[in-house]
Structures are given as C-alpha cells and as structure tokens.
C-alpha cells in the first residue's frame, strides 16, 4: 500500500474528535459514501508516537456559497441584473464533507483499529486507490468464507464481500420498499451459498426464485434444486394448529360450538397425513353426531353440532380452493418439475441436504394456511437439528414477505402460528445452525423480538417513516446519516450493516439477470395483452354473439 | 408642511436617532430630555441649510442592469481583517489575518475572482520583552490593553495589506477597506503600549528601514504613519467605508469652515458644538434625516488626529499628530431605512461622482443592509475561525511556559503557571473596551 500515490482531495477542518471530522473537498473529487484517509499521529500503547493512516467514510456532503448573501438575489431579480456582471462571487462553492471515522491502520497491517486520538486539523485528506480500499475491506473483514455481493456504491471498482459465517448463523434482515431490490439481493446471496453447498429453503410466494430451477443445469451443475408445493399434512401432535386453522378459516363460533370442536378433535383420532382429508372426516363425523343427537358431548345441543359441521365444511372448501389455485399456477409452468413437500417429520433429508436448495412455492395460499404450513415445516426441521442424532445439516431459511409470517404483536390478531416457531428458530439459531433471512417491505409491521435478533441488515430504498424508524431501531450500526440516505437510494442500492460487514457500507448489488424467472411476467400486463391469444371458449362464444345480439335488438324494437 | 415639522416627523420615524433619545432619557438631565426633539430638529434644520448653501448634496445615478453592464470590466479589491477573539491575556500572541476579495466580473471563470489571504500572522506581533512581568493586577486594565492591541493589530494589518497591493503593482480600478481609511491613533499613544517586533515590522513594511528599526520606529504610531503615507501615493483610488458614524466629523468640519469664512460667529460655532456633544448627535443621525435614498454628500477634508486631547497632550506623540494626512469624508445614503455610510479617502477623489456611484451600486446588492456587498463578502472570508483561535491559544501556552522554564527562575515559572491557569471568568460581563469601528 503506497499512501503517497493516493490523490489528495481536501483538507481536514476545524475541531476534530475520534468519531468524526469535517473536511473541505476539492470540486468533484469524491462522493458521499466514499472511503477516504488522512495521515495522523497517535500515541501507541508502548508510549511512542506512531504515524497511522486514519480511514473514514464520507457520510454527507454539503455545498454552499457562504459568500453569496441571500439579500443579493432580491436585487438581481428586481433590477434584472445578470450575476455575471456584478462583483458577486460565483466560484466559491464550498464542499464540506462529514466523515465517520472507521478506524486506523498502522503500516501495512490492514486491520482497522479503533481510533483513540483525534485526527489533525488542517491535515490532507486522500483518496485511496480502489485496490487499497478493497484490500482494506477484505483484510478488515477477515472472513473465512466471504460472499461477493456487489461494489461500493460510490466506487464501482471496489468489490464488496460479506461474511458467510455470520450470515448463516446470526440472521439477516433485508428491508426496502417493493421493487427496491430485495429479491435480487437474496438471489445474489443464494448464488454464493449454493456454490458453497450450503443448504437452504426459501419460502417463495411470488415465484421469484424459480429461476434457480430453470438455470440449475447451466449455473449450478453440482447442486440440487428442488421445487415443492405444500401439502398440508398434519399429525395428531399438530392439534393446536389444526384448531386455530379451523377457528380462523371457518365461520365464527360460539363457546359451546367451540367446545364441541375441541372435543371432536380429541375423539377423532388421525394417524397423520393430509389436513384436508382430516377436516373432511371431521365434518362428516360432526354431521353424524348431530343427526343422531349424540349425548357423547356434555351440554352441547345438536344445533351447535350442525353449526360446527357447517363451519368445518367451509374450511375444507377454502383449503381445497387454495390447493387448486396453487395447482393452476403450477400448471402454467408445465416445464418445471414440482414435487409435493415431503413430510418434514419423517423425511427431513429430502428437504434439507448438502448442496440442495429447496423452494417452497406458496402462491395461492392465504396467510393463515401458509403460516401453518411454514410453522409445521420449520418446527420439524428445527427438531431434527436439535436432536443429538442430527439428521440434517445446518441450513438457512429465507422468509420472503416476512410480515405475513411474523407480524408484530399488535398486528397479530389471528395468532399466526409461524410467529412462535420462527421466534424459537431464530433465538436458538446460533446454537443449532438454523439461520434465518427475513425479507420484508414493511419492517414496522414485523415482530420486534424477531427483527431485533437479526445481527445484520441490508436496507434498500425506504420512504415510509415508520419503516425507517423500525429499521434504525433494530440496527445498532446503522447511523442517522445512513438512514437519511434511504429514501434516495436507487434500485439495487442498499446499505449493509452489522456483523456481516465491519462497518456500514453503501453497496450497489450485483444484478444476476440470469436468475430472473423468465416464465412469469406477472407485472408485464402490456406485453401480456400484446401477445394475447383468445381462448378457444371465447372464440366459440364470439362466433354466435352477433346472431344473438341481432335477436335481442329486433326484440327491443318490437317492445318500442 | 413647514420644514421644521417635516424634520421633526423624520426624527420620530428615524430609529437610530430614537434609540439615542432613549439612551439620553436615561442618562441626561430632565431639561436635556425635554429638549431633545426640539434641539435635534433645530440642529438638523440649520445643518441642512448650510449643506444646501454649500451645494454639497449630489444625486447619484443607479440603474442596476445598465450600471453593471458598463462596469463589469472594472477590477475591484475589497479588504477586511480579522483578529482571533479568544486570547486570554494581553501579552498573548495574536492570530490575525486580512483577506482580499478581488473581482473582475467580465474575466473568464478562473480569473474572475480571487479570495486572497493577503496577510496571516500567528505569533508575537508585539515585542514580548518584559511582558511576563508587566501583568497588570487589574483585570479591567488588562482587558482594555488587550482590546487595544487587537485593534492596533487589525488596523496595521489592514493598512499594510493595501500597501502590499500597491507594492505589487496590482492593477485595480478600486480598492475598498472595511473601516476608516485612517483610524484615530489616539488610543495607541498611551504609556506602555508595546512596540511591534522587528520581525513583524520587517514583514509588514519591507521598505521601511529608517533608524534601523529602533523601538521608537517600531511603535504603532510610526509604522501606521509610514503605511498611510505609502497608501496616499496609490495610483488607484482607495476608500475606507464605515457603516455608522459614532461621531460628527463632517458636521463639525462644515461648521468650522463656515466659521472660518466668517459666516458663522465664533460664539454660535462653540455653542452648536457643545450642543452636538451634549446630545450625542452624530453625522449618522443628522444625515439620515437630511439625505434621501441615492443621495451623496461631497467629500470634505477633515483632520482625523487632533492635537490637544488629554491623552496625547504632553505625550511623546503630541507632535506626530500633525504629520498624519488629513482625510476626505463623504456620505452616501444607500437605501431608505439605514443611516448613510461614510466614505473616506486619503486624497481628494478625482472622480467623486463616478466612484460614489460605484459604491452605491455595490451597496444596492445588499438591499436591506445597504453596505457594499464586496466588503460583506470579504468580512466573512477574513473572520478567524474558532479553531484557529484555539490553536493560537495553545501555541501561546507552550510558548510562555518554555520561556519561563528557560529563565530557570522559580518565580517566573509560577507566574507563568498562574497566568495559564487564570480563568476566563474575569473577561466576561465587561463593558466593551477598545475602540469601536
Ligand atoms: N442490483 C440491481 N441492479 C440493477 N437493477 C436492479 C437491482 N436490484 C433490483 N433491480 C431492478 O429492480 C427490480 C425489482 O427488484 P426486486 O429485487 O424484485 O425488488 P423487491 O424484491 O425489493 O420488491 C428488478 O427486477 C430489477 O429490474
Ligand atoms: Mg421481492
């Protein structure tokens, strides 16, 4: 590292301390987010004075012409004077940068140490070469398993890597408004982790991850990518979830009706399998008890039993509908091989295995059943990691649209079952290797405990103030200056902070275009219309439409 | 409406005069209070008559757009100085700098304007010899001396900056100084006012080697006089511009001229002067009423340094006062609501009207403040930032201790420590000493 070769870009101003300083920047020589240095001297622990390189990040830039009095503008306008003709100054735009100090390095040891002595006012500020900045970031991160994600926002040439070990064990949250680049980021990380053979399961609601299965042969020949559709298979242990599902999906019930329902669940044993089937059995049994005016249930009148039976019928109908919707979506992608989700209790290795990515395609499912599916799945996988005889390796769970699965307490009126499960998985994640990645556009609506368990954050554009507040609340490392930047980020620009990096960094995420699912153009309605082919049934209808309309028009004339 | 009623209304509407009236109401006797309005009105009426008689009022032309189109080719230099505000005691070295804002509007961008740090000084401007011992016991004296030294430093540096521009043969059309072109030197004639260091004088006036720079030659009075003489020779016009006048040099001089011509009697002259003094009437007060927006008063020759002040009389400097050049003072009223600004020069202006119109135009660019915008700009530039003041204080502390330790004298060392540990406390809540601009 040859500090002498670095370009000088400004001068340290005024009063400095060990956290930050200001410097006046030469025109166009650096941007917000850039990493800069200044040479300084500090007392070493041995009592000598040593020369060090202090590194910092430009957190804000202000430009002002301190010498242009605002009053003058009045006269220029009133008298129609061109400022160029007057003695008013025009070239004194002063650029003042605020720098957050990252730490110092000594000689060629590129490990950042905390600065304990202020930088020198009037010292020169330099612009280190891209290679040196990158070298510093890599060396400082000191990661055994770095993941490449993009480049420093202000400097394309500086590649940014994050630490995989922290990522998979300490949990990450990815926030940003819709369309800001969250999913692109997740796919980037998944790409890197796949190459490291790390097992993952992603909850895919929109089909954003189907690109992995399409490109598997080409891009990931050494990996297994599985595409699952949910089957709501339950065992008798899941009684609570089943009860909740019935209660929330069905009609609202009175207390005696509820009592009947829970007694029914006790009575009708189930050896495990499809939830739908079980509910159909329950409905059948309930009708039976009602029609024979069974006295097996204390104080419950047959009328109540009928109501409960009807409600069970409703639930079954809804579940069938969701299954069918999901099925129809799958059918549209006939070239993709969907498999039914294996039973996580008995065959977890089919879901989590070294080198395998499992995509759980949840399109078509309402929140509550989706949550139930996820809850049962994770609960079982977690159990397998907890056991002494580990049947599956450590893995990462990626939760897209996380506000659906882990709503905050104030929003969680429906007792979403996945909240408890995910809370457990995330809290114990470090111990059992069950890392979680939470992706959401509404961080303010997330369960606070779970969100605060994420030790790293990647934040994309965010305009909503509530969400911004929630984000800064959960993060220990995101500075106020960083959060001010959030509304102005472009697609794919995010701020990474927390344990996957050593200090917060604005990053331009690399966009893997190949990983886009090219089957679903679900937001591309214009193209869809352009390529619109009329369905046969419609064509048929049109064939006779003219004749029918003739009839009706003649008919009308008669009426007149 | 009679002239008198008119004037009285103007006085009532005139804020600075009214403030003065309120001040007088607090300090002056009841008779003085009662008469204030009448007296001021009468004085104003009389002065207005004389001014009309002498034909001193000139209407200046200003058409914004047109004016600047014609004058965009002019090169102007605006000068101001700044002294740090945080020195602890009078023997502290000072940090001073003067800035020049040099602008030629029609030049291409990179040559259009320059912010030049014309003089910078951080260190012993005044000879520190013996100063360790002459620490005054009285905080107030000490404070006064400090302020005087700061003022002296600023005045000398501003003058020397003009000298430097002349010396470097700069091609200016105008040069403007923020403040009087010739300051009243009386405050610096006090006993014990230190001389400048040899080093400082050599750097300020490279051509000034007279008497091998003995102590007398290095005194403020002599150095300043030398600088003024040099400025007087300038090929380009140099003007000092003052925001408000705390005295009445123009009016007094005008009266004096009329007395000399025999138009006013000795008695009337004396009485009027004492009335002006008693009621603390200044040029600003009266001219604010008399002049209309865009009007100027032709410059009059005025002696700035007057013999016979109690401070100077008998002092070694008494005779020097005569050697100081006289000053030409004029006024411009630059907007409706501010008092007129004072324009000073060391020579009688050759193109008085043109020059004053230029000044008016620069003041119109600060329509509310009514002061030449170039001086406002350079004022901001020359201010010493706080951190530089701090640096100078640190520098001083080490400097003083080093000196004391070098002397190996225990008393000196403990004195130095005492000085350094002195609290800033005693400098607060003091009346502002020194001279106002
Ligand atoms: N890093 C990036 N570089 C370039 N374009 C991007 C990047 N990230 C996102 N985009 C663009 O924005 C679109 C939406 O991104 P996506 O990740 O799906 O948003 P989100 O998941 O936050 O709703 C992408 O299809 C792409 O066109
Ligand atoms: Mg998305």
Question: Which CATH top level class of the largest domain in chain B fits?
Answer: Alpha Beta
Strand coverage percent of chain A: 15-25%
Structural category of chain A: alpha/beta
Taking the alpha carbons of the first and last residues of chain B, their distance comes to: 38 Å
Mean pLDDT value of chain B: 80
Radius of gyration of chain B: 23 Å
Mean of pLDDT of chain A = 89
So how many helices of chain A? 18
Shape of chain B: globular
Strand order of the largest sheet of chain A: 9-8-21-20-19-10-18-17-11-16-12-15
Strands of chain A, count: 21
Number of domains of chain A: 3
Report the portion of residues of chain B in β strands.
5-15%
3D structure, described in words:
The complex is a heterodimer of chains A (560) and B (437). In chain A, helix 7 runs antiparallel to helix 11 (367-386) and helix 8 (255-267) packs across helix 10. Chain A has three domains: 3-140, no CATH class; 158-231 and 341-515, Rossmann fold; 236-323, no CATH class. The mean pLDDT of chain A is 89. Chain A has 18 helices and 21 strands. Chain A is globular, with a radius of gyration of 31 Å. Chain A has helices spanning 70-78, 130-141, 164-170, 182-195, 210-214, 216-219, 239-249, 255-267, 275-291, 302-332, 367-386, 418-427, 429-432, 448-452, 465-474, 480-485, 525-530, 536-559; strands at 7-13, 20-25, 35-43, 49-64, 94-106, 109-113, 124-127, 146-152, 155-163, 172-175, 200-204, 224-229, 233-234, 273-274, 339-340, 356-361, 395-399, 434-440, 456-459, 493-498, 505-509. The relative contact order of chain A is 0.13. In chain A, the strands form three sheets. A twelve-stranded mixed β-sheet of chain A has the order 9-8-21-20-19-10-18-17-11-16-12-15. In chain A, strands 1-2-5-4-3-7 form a six-stranded antiparallel beta barrel. Chain A has 560 residues and is an alpha/beta fold. In chain A, strand 5 (94-106) and strand 6 form a beta hairpin. Chain B is of the alpha+beta class. Chain B has three domains: 1-55 and 248-281, no CATH class; 57-245 and 293-384, archaeoglobus fulgidus dsm 4304 fold (2-Layer Sandwich); 388-428, no CATH class. Helices cover 46% and strands 14% of the residues of chain B. Chain B has 15 helices and nine strands. Chain B has helices spanning 3-13, 15-27, 30-53, 64-71, 109-112, 139-167, 198-204, 220-232, 249-260, 266-278, 283-290, 352-364, 373-382, 386-407, 410-421; strands at residues 57-59, 76-83, 94-103, 113-123, 174-178, 238-242, 295-302, 327-332, 341-345. Chain B has a nine-stranded mixed β-sheet with strand order 1-7-8-9-6-5-2-3-4, sandwiched between helices. In chain B, a hairpin with an 8-residue loop joins strand 8 (327-332) and strand 9. Chain B is globular and about 80 Å long. The two termini of chain B are 38 Å apart. Residues 130-134 and 422-437 of chain B have low confidence and may be disordered. The chains are: A alpha/beta (560), B alpha+beta (437). Chain A binds chain B through residues 13-15, 66-67, 69, 71-72, 74-76, 78-82, 84-92, 121, and chain B through 63-65, 68-69, 71-72, 76, 101, 103, 105-106, 109-110, 112-113, 115, 362, 364-369, 373-374, 376-377, 380-381, 385-387, 390-391. The complex binds adenosine-5'-diphosphate (ADP) and magnesium ion (MG).
């Amino acid at each position: 590292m040859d500090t002498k070769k670095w370009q000088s870009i400004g001068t340290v101003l005024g009063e400095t301390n060990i956290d930050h300083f200001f410097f006046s920047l030469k025109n166009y020589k650096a941007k917000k987010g850039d990493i800069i240095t200044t040479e300084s001297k500090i007392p070493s622990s041995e009592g000598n004075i040593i020369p060090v390189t202090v590194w910092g990040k430009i957190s804000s830039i202000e430009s002002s012409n301190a010498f242009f009095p605002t009053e003058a503008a009045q006269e220029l306008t009133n008298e129609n004077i061109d400022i160029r003709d007057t003695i008013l100054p025009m070239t004194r735009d002063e650029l003042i940068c605020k720098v957050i100090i990252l730490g110092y390095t000594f000689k060629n040891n590129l490990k950042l140490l905390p600065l304990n002595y202020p930088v020198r006012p009037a010292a020169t500020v330099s612009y280190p070469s891209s290679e040196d900045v990158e070298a510093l970031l890599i060396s400082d991160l000191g990661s055994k398993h770095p993941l490449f994600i993009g480049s420093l926002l202000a400097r394309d040439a500086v590649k940014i890597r994050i630490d995989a070990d922290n990522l998979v064990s300490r949990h990450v949250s990815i926030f940003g408004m819709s369309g800001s680049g969250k999913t692109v980021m997740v796919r980037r990380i998944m790409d890197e982790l796949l190459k490291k053979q790390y097992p993952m399961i992603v909850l895919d609601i929109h089909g954003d991850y189907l690109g992995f299965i399409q490109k598997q042969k080409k891009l990931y020949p050494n990996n297994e990518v599985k595409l699952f559709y949910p089957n709501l298979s339950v065992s008798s242990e899941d009684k609570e979830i089943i009860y909740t599902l019935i209660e929330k999906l069905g009609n609202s019930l009175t207390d005696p009706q509820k009592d009947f329902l829970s007694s029914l669940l006790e009575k009708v044993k189930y050896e495990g399998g499809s939830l739908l089937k079980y509910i159909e059995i329950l409905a059948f049994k309930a009708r039976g008890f009602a029609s024979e005016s069974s006295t097996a249930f204390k104080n419950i009148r047959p009328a109540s039993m009928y109501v409960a039976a009807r409600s069970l019928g409703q639930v079954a109908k809804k579940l069938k509908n969701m299954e069918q919707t999901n099925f129809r979506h799958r059918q549209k992608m006939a070239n993709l091989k969907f498999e039914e989700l294996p039973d996580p209790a008995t065959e977890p290795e089919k879901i989590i295995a070294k080198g395998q990515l499992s995509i759980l395609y949840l399109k078509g499912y309402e929140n509550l059943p989706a949550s139930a599916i996820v809850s049962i799945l994770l609960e079982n996988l977690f159990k397998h990691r907890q056991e002494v005889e580990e049947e599956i390796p450590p893995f990462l769970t990626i939760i897209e649209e996380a506000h659906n699965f882990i709503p905050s307490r104030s929003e969680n009126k429906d007792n979403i079952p996945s909240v408890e499960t995910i809370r457990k998985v995330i809290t114990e994640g470090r111990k059992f290797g069950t890392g979680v990645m939470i992706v959401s556009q509404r961080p303010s609506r997330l369960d606070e405990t779970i969100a605060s368990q994420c030790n790293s954050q990647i934040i994309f554009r965010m305009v909503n103030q509530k969400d911004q507040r929630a984000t800064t609340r959960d993060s220990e490392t995101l500075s106020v200056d960083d959060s001010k930047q959030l509304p102005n980020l472009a697609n794919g620009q995010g701020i990474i902070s927390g344990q996957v990096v050593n200090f917060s960094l604005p990053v331009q995420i690399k966009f893997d275009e190949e990983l886009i699912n090219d089957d679903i153009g679900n937001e591309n309605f214009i193209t869809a219309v352009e390529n619109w082919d009329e369905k046969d049934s419609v064509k048929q209808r049109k064939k006779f439409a003219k004749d029918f309309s003739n009839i009706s028009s003649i008919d009308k004339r008669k009426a007149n | 409406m009679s002239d008198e009623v008119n004037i009285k209304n103007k006085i009532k509407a005139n804020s600075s005069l009214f403030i003065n009236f309120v001040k007088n109401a607090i300090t002056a006797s009841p008779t003085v209070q009662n008469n204030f309005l009448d007296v001021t009105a009468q004085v104003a009426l009389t002065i207005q008559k004389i001014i009309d008689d002498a034909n001193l009022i000139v209407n200046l032309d200003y058409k914004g757009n047109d004016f600047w189109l014609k004058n965009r080719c002019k090169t102007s230099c605006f000068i101001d100085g700044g002294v740090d505000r945080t020195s602890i005691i009078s023997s502290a070295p000072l940090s001073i700098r003067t800035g020049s804002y040099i602008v030629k509007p029609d030049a291409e961008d990179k040559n259009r304007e320059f912010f030049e740090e014309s003089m910078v000084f951080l260190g012993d401007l005044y000879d520190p010899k013996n100063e360790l011992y002459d620490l005054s016991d009285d905080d107030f004296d000490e404070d006064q001396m400090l302020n005087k030294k700061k003022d002296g430093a600023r005045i000398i540096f501003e003058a020397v900056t003009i000298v430097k521009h002349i010396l470097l043969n700069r091609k200016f059309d105008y040069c403007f100084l923020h403040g009087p072109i010739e300051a009243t030197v009386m405050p610096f004639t006090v006993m014990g006012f230190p001389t400048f260091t040899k080093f400082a004088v050599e750097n300020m006036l490279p051509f000034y080697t007279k008497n091998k720079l003995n102590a007398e030659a290095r005194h403020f009075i002599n150095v300043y006089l030398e600088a003024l003489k040099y400025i007087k020779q300038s090929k380009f016009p140099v003007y000092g511009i003052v925001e408000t006048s705390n005295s009445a040099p123009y009016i007094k001089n005008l009266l004096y001229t009329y007395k000399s011509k025999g138009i006013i009697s000795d008695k009337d002259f004396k009485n009027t002067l004492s009335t002006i003094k008693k009621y603390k009437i200044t040029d600003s007060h009266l001219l604010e009423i008399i002049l209309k927006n865009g009007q100027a008063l032709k410059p009059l020759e005025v002696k700035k340094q007057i013999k016979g002040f109690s401070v100077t009389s008998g002092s070694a400097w008494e005779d020097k006062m005569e050697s100081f050049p006289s000053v030409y003072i004029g006024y411009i009223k630059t907007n409706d609501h501010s008092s007129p600004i004072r324009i000073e020069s060391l020579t009688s202006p050759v193109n008085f009207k043109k020059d004053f119109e230029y000044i008016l135009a620069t003041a119109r660019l600060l329509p509310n403040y009514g002061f030449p915008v170039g001086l406002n700009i350079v004022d901001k530039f020359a201010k010493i930032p706080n951190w530089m003041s701090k640096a100078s204080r640190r520098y001083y502390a080490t400097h003083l201790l080093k000196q004391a330790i070098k002397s190996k004298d225990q008393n000196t060392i403990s004195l130095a420590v005492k000085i350094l540990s002195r609290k800033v406390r005693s400098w607060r809540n003091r009346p502002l000493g020194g001279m106002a601009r």
